[in-house]
Design the sequence.
C-alpha cells in the first residue's frame, strides 16, 4: 500500500468522508494491506458503538410473486420456471410467534412486489404482529410503493423499511432494470420513507453487471449523504433463469472491503453480513462481522417455501429449521469472539431523534 493510500484511509477514519474521486481511487488501488487496515479501523469503530453485539433479525419471506422484472433477480416476473408461493396472514403470524419464542425481537417481512398485499391487507398483518408482540420491531422490505402507502404502513406500526437503492448511478440503474422502473422513483421512495420517519435501509449488490469503481464511488457518496440507518450490501450471484445467468458473481473480497469502508463512513449503521456472502463463502458471514458488519438475518420462513424464494443460485439456509439456523449462527459468531443479542437493536441515531422529540 502506498503512503497516499494509507493517508486516505486514516482521513476516512477521522472524517467519515472522502470525495467521489477518492472513493474510486480507494477501491481501484486496494490490496490486502489496505483491506486489513480498513477492517481493523472498522472493527474499532463498531466496537466503540456496539461492543461485541451482533443483532439478529428474523427474515420472513412472505411472497415469491413479483410484478417486477429486475434483470438480476431469480423471482422476476418473466421467470416462468419459478415456483411461486404467498404466505397468508395466519402463516406470517405463526412465523413471528415461532421467532418470538426463539428470541427474535425484529421481524423483517420481505417479498416480491405482490399485488395481493394491498395496503389494507398489509396494515392488518403489521398491526396484528405489533398487537401480539408490542416489544418487537417490524421491518418491511416489499419494494416500491406510493408515499400514501408507506404512511399507512407506518401508522399501522411498521418501524423500519429496507429498500436497496441498487446503484446510485442512473445509467447503471437502467441497465439492471426494465424500462418501466426508474432510478427517480427509487430515490423518491427512499426520500419519502425517511421523511415519514422510518428507520431506513438502502444498499446494493457488489459486482452487479456493469458496475465500475466509479459507480461504486457514487454508491459510497450516496450513503455518506443519505445517512441510512441500515445498509444491506452483498455480492451479486447469478441466477440461471435470468438474463444475467451467465454473468460473473461479485467477490467476497470486494464485499468485505466495502463493508469496512461503510462502517467508517457511518459508525452507527446497522450493517448485515448477508446470506449472499455466506453463500459464496462458507465462512462469509463471520468474515463480514470481522470486516465491520453487526447484523445477521436468519430465515424464519416456513421450511417448505424456503427453496422457492430463490433470488440466486445455491442460496444457503433453505433447509434448516429456524432454531437450528440460530444455534448454528450463535456458534459461528462466538467462534470469532462475538455474541448474538436479542434486543430490538434500533438505530442509535433514530433513538436520539425520538428522545429529543419526546423531551421537547
Ligand atoms: N421486492 C423487494 C425490493 O425490491 O426491495 C425486496 C425483495 S428483493 C429480492 C431484495 C434484494 O435482493 C434486492 O434489493 C437485491 O439487491 C437482492 N438480490 C436480488 N437478486 C439478487 C442476486 N441475483 N444476487 C444477489 N442479490 C440479489
Ligand atoms: Fe421483484 Fe426481485 S424482481 S423481488
Sequence:
Amino acid at each position: 500500500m502506498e503512503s497516499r493510500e494509507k493517508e486516505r484511509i486514516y482521513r476516512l477514519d477521522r472524517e467519515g468522508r472522502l470525495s467521489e474521486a477518492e472513493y474510486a481511487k480507494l477501491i481501484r488501488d486496494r490490496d490486502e494491506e489496505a483491506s486489513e487496515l480498513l477492517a481493523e479501523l472498522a472493527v474499532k469503530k463498531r466496537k466503540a458503538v456496539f461492543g461485541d453485539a451482533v443483532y439478529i433479525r428474523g427474515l420472513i419471506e412472505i411472497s415469491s410473486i413479483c410484478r417486477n422484472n429486475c434483470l438480476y433477480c431469480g423471482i422476476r416476473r418473466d421467470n416462468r420456471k419459478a415456483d411461486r408461493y404467498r404466505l397468508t396472514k395466519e402463516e406470517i403470524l405463526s412465523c413471528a410467534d415461532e421467532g418470538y419464542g426463539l428470541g427474535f425481537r425484529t421481524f423483517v417481512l420481505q417479498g416480491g412486489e405482490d399485488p395481493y398485499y394491498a395496503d389494507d391487507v398489509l396494515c392488518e398483518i403489521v398491526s396484528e404482529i405489533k398487537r401480539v408482540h408490542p416489544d418487537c420491531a417490524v421491518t418491511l422490505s416489499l419494494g416500491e410503493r406510493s408515499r400514501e402507502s408507506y404512511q399507512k404502513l407506518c401508522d399501522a406500526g411498521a418501524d423500519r423499511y429496507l429498500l436497496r437503492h441498487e446503484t446510485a448511478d442512473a445509467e447503471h440503474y437502467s441497465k439492471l432494470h426494465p424500462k418501466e422502473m426508474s432510478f427517480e422513483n427509487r430515490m423518491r421512495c427512499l426520500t419519502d420513507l425517511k421523511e415519514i420517519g422510518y428507520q431506513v435501509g438502502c444498499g446494493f449488490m457488489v459486482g452487479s453487471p456493469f458496475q465500475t469503481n466509479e459507480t461504486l464511488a457514487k454508491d459510497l457518496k450516496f450513503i455518506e449523504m443519505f445517512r441510512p440507518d441500515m445498509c444491506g450490501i452483498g455480492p451479486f450471484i447469478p441466477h440461471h433463469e435470468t438474463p444475467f445467468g451467465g454473468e460473473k458473481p461479485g467477490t467476497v473480497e470486494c464485499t468485505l472491503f466495502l463493508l469496512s469502508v461503510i462502517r467508517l463512513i457511518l459508525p452507527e449503521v446497522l450493517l448485515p453480513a448477508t446470506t449472499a456472502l455466506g453463500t459464496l463463502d462458507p465462512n462469509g458471514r463471520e468474515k463480514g462481522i470481522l470486516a465491520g458488519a453487526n447484523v445477521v438475518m436468519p430465515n424464519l420462513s416456513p421450511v417448505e417455501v424456503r427453496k422457492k424464494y430463490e433470488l440466486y443460485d445455491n442460496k444457503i439456509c433453505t433447509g434448516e429449521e429456524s432454531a437450528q439456523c440460530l444455534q448454528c449462527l450463535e456458534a459461528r459468531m462466538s467462534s470469532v469472539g462475538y455474541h448474538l443479542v436479542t434486543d430490538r437493536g434500533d438505530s442509535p441515531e433514530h433513538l436520539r431523534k425520538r428522545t429529543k422529540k419526546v423531551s421537547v
